[in-house]
Amino acid sequence: METSVGPSRVLTGHSGSHAARQRKVQRSHLRSFAPLLFGSRLLIGLVILFGAGMSYFASSVEAAGIDLGVTAQKAWDSVLNKADAKTKLTLKQTYEKVGNWKAQEQAWEQKIKTLHAVNTAELERLRVVIRQTDDAKIAALTEKVKQTQARYEPLFALYSSVNRQLDAAKAIKNKEWSAAIRTQAETLKPVVQLAREDIRIKKKELAEARKRKSTEIKRLRAMLAGADSAKKQIQTAKKQATLAKERYSGALQQFKQNTKQGQTSRVLSSLNTLASAAEKWAGTKQHIHTLEQKVSTTYMKVRQEIAKRFK
Fold first, then answer.
1. C-alpha dihedral (273, 274, 277, 278), degrees to nearest 10
2. Which of 108, 204, 256, 285 has the smallest set of CB atoms within 10 Å of its CB?
3. For position 65, what pLDDT does the model report?
4. What is the mean pLDDT of residues 229-243?
């Protein structure tokens, strides 16, 4: 009975040890995956924020209009009352067009702010995850090297001691002692060589893992830098938006002056100019949003590339 139980215990112990290692590896993988899990929750929150921006876009477009102020509004109403039916309709339609473009500009601005916040948070998260690439794997290999060196340390100490004794025996020219020590040294030598080779292999594995980490980090950071072009274009587009805003402000001021003077033809002309300026302003904001989407697409590709490593 004892003979049959012995192997069973050994197998059980081995299985338990294997299961413990499995759990340790799983915990290590989960720690590596944690930034992605956290990033996913963060991304969901930001997407909700983005959705709120979309709702704002719809409501803003519906609330079309121009904020003229009390005095300018009275002057505008007076121009409408004096105009014939056809001109009045044209004035109202053009006025509404200005209001619609202005509302779209405001909505695009809100969408830009929302998406930019998403991109900024995602960039920071990706930088952290990239920096931590293969950290768990390298930590495990580093620990393996340390454990292997510690395991062979007594052997190396013994081998060094035997060689020192051999040198001492040679120094006093004691042939019998020298022969005995030499035999012991020769017996230990192949074992020591195997131990050193074992350590060398594990150090090589660690070095290769660190090299792969460095290469992978460079690759992912290069992908991340793919958004730089769009970011530069955004800066240029923002300057264009500022100029468009200035043109709109100038056109609005001219429109208000013309309404005070009450000349219908000039009012209509300035209103057309104002509509064109508002359209241009909204267009620049839409372009900025499109560029922010390009940045978002780049980050999504990097995120997908990182996710592949955990499959």
1. -150
2. 204
3. 60
4. 97
Q: What is the 3-state secondary structure (H, E, C) of the chain?
A: CHHHHHHHHHHHHHHHHHHHHHHHHHHHHHHHHHHHHHHHHHHHHHHHHHHHHHHHHHHHHHCCCCCCCHHHHHHHHHHHHHCCHHHHHHHHHHHHHHHHHHHHHHHHHHHHHHHHHHHHHHHHHHHHHHHCCCHHHHHHHHHHHHHHHHHHHHHHHHHHHHHHHHHHHHHCCCHHHHHHHHHHHHHHHHHHHHHHHHHHHHHHHHHHHHHHHHHHHHHHHHHHHHHHHHHHHHHHHHHHHHHHHHHHHHHHHHHHHHHHHCCHHHHHHHHHHHHHHHHHHHHHHHHHHHHHHHHHHHHHHHHHHHHHCCC
- C-alpha span between 111 and 239 (Å, rounded): 18
How many whole angstroms separate alpha carbon 74 and alpha carbon 101? 22
Alpha carbon distance 177, 182 (integer Å):
8
131, amino acid identity? R
Separation CA 264–CA 167 (nearest Å): 115
Mean pLDDT of 274-287: 97
Whether residue 273 has pLDDT greater than 60: yes
Q: pLDDT tens digits, residue range 54-63?
A: 444 443 333 3
Global model pTM greater than 0.90: no
Residue 308 CB partners (closer than 8 Å, separation 6+): none
Write the single-letter amino acid at 147: Q
Q: Amino acid letter at 223?
A: M
Assess whether pLDDT exceeds 90 at residue 39: no
